[in-house]
Amino acid sequence: MGKEQEFDLYIEAGKTEKQYFKDLWRYRELFFFLSWRDILVRYKQTVIGILWAVLRPLLTMVVFTFVFGNVAKLPSEGGAPYPILVYVAMLPWQFFASALQESSNSLISNANMVSKIYFPRLVIPTSSVIVSFIDFLISFIILVFLMIAYGFAPSIKIIALPIFTLIAFFASMGCGLWLSALNVKYRDFRYIVPFIVQFGLYISPVGFSSGIIPDKWRLLYSLNPMVGVIDGFRWSIIGNTQVYMPGFVLSLIVVAAVFITGLLFFRKTEKVFADII
Amino acid sequence: MGDTVIKVENLGKKYVIRHQQERYTALRDVIANKVKSIGRKKLDTGEKEEFWALKDVSFDIKQGDRVGIIGRNGAGKSTLLKLLSRITEPTTGSIALKGRVSSLLEVGTGFHPELTGRENIYLNGAILGMSKREIKAKFDEIVEFAEVEKFLDTSVKRYSSGMYVRLAFSVAAHMEPEILIVDEVLAVGDAQFQKKCLGKMEDVGKEGRTVLFVSHNMNAVNRICNCGILLEKGEISKKSDDLDQLTKYYLSFSDNADIKNMWINNSNKLMYENEWFLPIKLFISEEDGKLCDFIVENNRDIWINIEGIVENVNQALTLGYAIYNEEGTLLYWTYQTDQNEENWPKLKKGYFRIRSKLPKNLLNEGTYKIEMIGSIHFIKWFLEPGKNVPTVYFKIQGGLSDSPYWIAKRPGVIAPIIEWKAY
Q1: d(CA A123, CA A23)
Q2: For chain B, what is the radius of gyration of the CA atoms?
Q3: How far, in Å, CA of B396 to CA of B358, rounded?
Q4: Mean pLDDT throughout A104-119?
Q5: DSSP calls for B40-55
Q6: Which of B 215-274 lie inside 8 A of A, CB atoms?
Q7: Is residue A207 a contact partner of residue A86, using CB atoms and an 8 Å limit?
Q8: A18 CB contacts (<8 Å, ≥6 apart)?
Q9: Confidence band (pLDDT; 50, 70, 90) for B25?
Q10: Which residue of B lies nearest to A7 if distances are taken between CA atoms?
């Protein structure tokens, strides 16, 4: 056993490295650098730059308010103006959707790095999610303006918002890990992801209140992890809306399950990325 | 000093090759196969083939060793480096490493063309595992080594390829790893830069760090390394502290059976039928007449040997050779009658042998073709250049010059060492 102490690192066929999480810590700054790179690159040679992060949710909100609020005349919730109802849901949804899109492609677009340099691969999809998270924070500023414009004051429950944000983060990470790892092997996921995102926008309660879902379907509806997150966002910002507790708990369980299995799956396939990418 | 820092045991890496043209697995096929295989037990026909890129490789490397990893294309060098730098996982065996490993398998990986030089230094440093503080501390040194001060805030897509490579190497070389793994980076960049890189790697070695260096360039290997590992078909075929011997051994096998450095007339008299001369042998030899290796270093004289039978003596009988490079460019013709008449070798009736020295440090690296040519001067060719005449080949590799500024093949047809003097 004394001999074993000599070396810092053992690589053995078929064994998971013990120091993976130590490495992750060592490379912690890489999370920041990769996110920083992506943001820097994204807005180079664009005229309005970071404003794009704001424009997308804002315009979708306008359209949704018009379609669901004015044309379909769906009810708002808790006395909030319809644009605020939509925008509050749009924030976590946009975060989730862009995190999904960015992270599922992240390994492929960094293929060169994956096949030539070692670092914990987990850094790549995670920093894609971080980039989307930064967009999320920027879009949040718009919400503040929107609420001032409508003279709508948030309740004290807003202090719970970080918890729901965290849930949104883990939901994005879990799905992102699954999809990015699968995409390395099966490029089909490149086509599946945009579909999930498009479809998801309509089956999640973004443009409408989840209160309009019939009660018998609500538990089933809550299998969508974003339902719990969006309801939570509305509850903490708008204040007097209802959270359907069984559904929320179910959403939480789904998020936890997706995240844990995603992490395990990613770790398992990570070792062969360089060979098949 | 003297501690083992890398210990490799029974290392193997297997790849599965699919004999299908499809590059990526499509989900559709996987599902289809799964569905089909419910009915039949095994659907897999012999479409897959296993291939061991590396097999049963074991070695120890001590601290401060500078190890050259030598081998042909496909011998497993890159796979070995990839395993050592943890990019891919071994199929069998184990590796134990001591200290921080930095690998430079390709210059500029992780660089983003849209970002500026400054931004890329930070990004690349972080990818290689440096902390922000370390990069800051080393920043000036990196920039100075790369000689890109003026262009720090220009995006690297506007860099010349030389600047790009310099910057990339500089970042990797300044991370002060205990073990530095370098793959063939010297293939790029100009001679000045190559020299600088070699110097840097030598410094790294002198500081007691360990260097693993892969290159086809035997000059560079000889300069940097103090020992070597020769890989052949995924296995270690030789390991030695004597690099000269290892180099010789490496260069001694020639691949192609058709390309030989010896031609012998297989009694096909008719083919070369003429009334004056019958060619018997054409070969490349050492000074002592021994057939030399197919691959010759440029710093050795070699001899072109012609043997044959003179049927009828003729005063105007000339014999010699034409030499062509890989592109088929004729370099020159030469005959036994090139000098003044007293120095001509006498051609008497019957079997004879003549030879001519090909001076060292004349040709460049590459494969050369030698044709035996012969004529009755100004009257008639009996062995006309390019017309199905006896042909041999040899290859020049290594030994180009002892100059530290000259380590690889230079542009140009020939590569003579020419004297320079101050006056």
Answers
A1: 11
A2: 28
A3: 12
A4: 89
A5: SS----TTEEEEEEEE
A6: none
A7: yes
A8: none
A9: low
A10: B98
pLDDT tens-place string over residues B73-99: 678 888 898 898 888 888 898 898 888
Interfacial B residues in 101-160 facing A (CB < 8 Å): 101, 103, 105-106, 109-110, 112, 114-115, 119, 122-123, 126-129, 131-132, 155
Tokens matching residue A204? 């999640």
Asked casually if ipTM beats, i.e. exceeds, 0.85, the reply is: no
- Find the CB nearest A117 among B98, B110, B155: B110
A41 with B24: Cβ contact below 8 A = no
In the block, tokens 């008299």 appear at B269
Judge residue B69's burial from the number of C-beta atoms within 10 Å of its C-beta, 0-12 exposed, 13-18 middle, 19 or more buried: buried
Measured CA to CA, the distance from residue B73 to residue B81 in angstroms comes to 14
Task: Kindly list the residues from chain A whose CB atom is less than 8 angstroms away from the CB atom of residue B88.
Answer: 271-272, 274-275
pLDDT digits 0-9 by tens, B28-60:
777 777 666 655 544 444 466 788 888 889 999
Tokens representing B118 are: 């400054």
Whether A25 contacts chain B with CB within 8 A: no
Please list every residue in chain B whose beta carbon sits closer than 8 Å to the beta carbon of residue A8. Answer: 97-99
Please answer yes or no on whether A275 and B28 come within 8 Å at the CB atom.
Answer: no
Put simply, whether the predicted model's pTM sits higher than 0.80 gets the answer no
- What residues of chain A, 73 to 112, have a C-beta less than 8 Å from chain B? 112
A30 touching chain B per CB within 8 A: yes
Least-confidence region, from A11-15, A185-189, B21-25, B119-123: B21-25
Asked if the C-beta of A1 comes within 8 angstroms of chain B's C-beta atoms, the answer is no
Chain B contact for A116, CB < 8 A? yes
Instruction: For residue A91, give the 3-state DSSP assignment.
Output: helix
Distance CA(A114)–CA(A121), nearest Å, equals: 7
Question: In 10 A of CB B336, how many CB atoms?
Answer: 19
DSSP letters of B324-385? E-TT--EEEEEETTSS-GGGSPP--SEEEEEEEEE-TT-B-SEEEEEEEEEEETTTEEEE-T
